[in-house]
C-alpha cells in the first residue's frame, strides 16, 4: 500500500542535499506569516495508543496572516526542531543512505515574529484551515505549503497524529517515536478494513479537537500573545495529503463546522454518508494517473460528493509531489536524476509547488469566501498541467 512507503520516500528524496543553509523564499502573498506551535491536550480522550493510558495530545503549528504594514520584524525559523531533523537524517542512514547529517536542520523559513497591536486585533477575521499529513509523515514536511496558504489570508493549523507520525516532538524537547513498519502493515492489512477505519476515526477526532481549541480564547492567546478574540471556527476548511486527505473528507462529512474539504492524492476511507459542501479530489494526470477511474475508493466517495465537487489531475506528478519536497529539492539545486523523477515526477519542483498551492488556495477561496474561480471550469492557459473534471 502506497502510504506506508511515504516516509521512506521522503527521506530518500533529500539524499544528496548540499550542506549549508537553505532558506525557503517568502511566499509573497498579500500577507506576511506569523507562526507558533503548541501541544494541545484533549482532557476528554484517553489516548488509545498510549501504553500509559494518558490523555490524547496533538502537536500543532499555526501559520497566521499579518498585514505587511503590521509586521514589525521578520525572523528566520528552523524548518523543523532538532530531534525531528535528526530523525529525518538518521532514518535515511538506517536505510543505508548517506544523507549528510544536519541536512534537515539546515533548512529555514521566514516568519513575521513581531506583530503590531492592530495586526493582532485583525486576526479573528481570517478563516481557519486545518491540515493533516500523510501516514507516517510529519506535519512539518508541509510547512512551506501552509505558509503559502496563510500568506493568502488563512489561519492554517497543521497537526501531527501522535504515534502515527515517525516522530512527534514537543516544545520542551521531549518526543514520541511512532509505530514501526510492521505495525503499520498490520494496521493497514486490506483484509481488516476496520483497523484502518479506526485509525482514521482517531485522526478525525484529533482534527475536531484542534478546531474546537482554535475557538477558545485561552488557546489563541497562547499561540498569538496579545490576542483578544478566538477564531471563528464555524466556517472552516480542511485539506490533507494522502491518509491526511482521507481524514479531511471524512471530517467534512461528519463535522458541520467544516465548509470545504480537499484530498491531495490519498485513497479515501471513512466516508459513508453524503457530503453536501464543496469537496475536491486532487490527484494525478498522465503519465502516472491517479483518479476515480483507477482508484475505486475515489469512485465511491465521488458518488457521495453531492454538493459542489471537482476532481483535478496534475500531470507528470507522483504521490510525493504533494508536499514541500519538490520545492526543497529544487532549492537545493539537485540535478535531475531517475531517483528524483521516480519520487517527484517530471515536473519542475518549484512549478509543481506553485500549481498545487494555487489550486488549494482557489478551492479555499471558493469554499470559505464564496469566490468563484475560472480554474475550476476547465483547462487553464496559465496551468495547462491540470486536468479538471
Ligand atoms: C551522523 O551522525 C551519527 C551520530 O553522530 C554518526 O553515527 C553517523 O555516522 C553520521 N552520518 C553521516 C553521514 O555523517
Ligand atoms: C513493532 O511495534 C509493535 C507494536 O508496538 C511491537 O509489538 C513490535 O515488537 C515492534 N516490532 C519491532 C520489530 O520493533
Ligand atoms: C483517469 O486516467 C486514465 C488514464 O489516463 C484516463 O483514461 C481516464 O479517463 C481518467 N479518468 C478521469 C475521470 O479523468
TrEMBL record:
This is PAF acetylhydrolase family protein. It comes from Lindgomyces ingoldianus.
Amino acid at each position: 500500500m502506497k502510504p506506508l512507503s511515504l516516509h521512506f520516500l521522503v527521506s530518500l528524496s533529500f539524499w544528496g542535499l548540499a550542506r549549508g543553509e537553505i532558506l525557503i523564499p517568502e511566499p509573497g502573498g498579500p500577507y506576511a506569516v506569523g507562526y507558533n506551535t503548541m501541544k494541545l491536550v484533549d482532557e476528554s480522550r484517553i489516548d488509545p495508543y498510549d501504553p500509559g493510558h494518558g490523555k490524547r495530545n496533538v502537536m500543532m503549528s499555526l501559520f497566521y496572516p499579518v498585514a505587511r504594514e503590521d509586521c514589525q520584524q521578520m525572523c528566520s525559523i528552523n524548518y523543523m526542531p532538532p530531534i525531528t531533523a535528526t530523525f529525518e537524517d538518521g532514518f535515511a542512514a538506517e536505510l543505508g543512505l548517506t544523507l549528510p547529517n544536519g541536512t534537515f536542520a539546515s533548512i529555514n523559513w521566514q516568519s513575521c515574529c513581531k506583530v503590531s497591536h492592530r495586526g493582532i486585533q485583525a486576526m479573528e477575521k481570517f478563516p481557519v484551515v486545518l491540515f493533516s499529513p500523510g501516514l507516517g509523515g510529519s506535519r512539518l514536511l508541509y510547512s512551506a505549503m501552509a505558509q503559502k496558504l496563510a500568506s493568502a489570508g488563512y489561519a492554517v493549523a497543521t497537526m501531527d497524529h501522535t504515534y502515527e507520525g515517525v516522530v512527534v516532538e514537543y516544545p520542551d524537547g521531549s518526543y514520541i517515536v511512532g509505530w514501526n513498519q510492521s505495525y503499520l502493515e498490520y494496521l493497514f492489512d486490506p483484509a481488516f478494513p476496520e483497523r484502518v477505519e479506526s485509525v482514521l476515526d482517531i485522526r478525525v477526532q484529533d482534527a475536531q479537537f484542534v478546531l474546537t481549541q482554535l475557538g477558545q480564547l485561552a488557546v489563541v492567546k497562547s499561540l498569538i500573545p496579545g490576542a483578544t478574540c478566538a477564531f471563528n471556527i464555524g466556517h472552516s476548511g480542511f485539506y490533507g495529503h494522502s491518509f491526511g486527505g482521507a481524514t479531511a473528507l471524512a471530517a467534512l462529512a461528519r463535522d458541520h463546522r467544516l465548509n470545504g474539504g480537499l484530498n491531495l492524492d490519498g485513497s479515501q476511507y471513512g466516508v459513508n454518508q453524503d457530503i453536501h459542501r464543496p469537496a475536491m479530489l486532487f490527484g494525478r494526470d498522465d503519465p502516472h494517473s491517479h483518479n476515480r477511474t483507477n482508484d475505486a475508493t475515489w469512485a465511491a466517495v465521488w458518488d457521495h460528493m453531492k454538493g459542489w465537487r471537482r476532481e483535478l489531475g496534475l500531470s507528470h506528478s507522483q504521490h510525493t509531489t504533494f508536499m514541500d519536497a519538490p520545492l526543497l529539492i529544487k532549492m537545493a539545486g539537485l540535478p535531475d536524476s531517475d531517483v528524483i523523477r521516480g519520487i517527484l515526477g517530471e515536473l519542475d519542483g518549484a512549478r509543481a509547488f506553485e500549481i498545487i498551492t494555487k489550486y488549494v488556495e482557489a478551492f479555499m477561496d471558493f469554499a470559505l469566501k464564496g469566490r468563484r474561480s475560472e480554474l475550476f471550469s476547465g483547462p487553464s492557459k496559465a496551468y495547462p498541467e491540470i486536468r479538471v473534471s
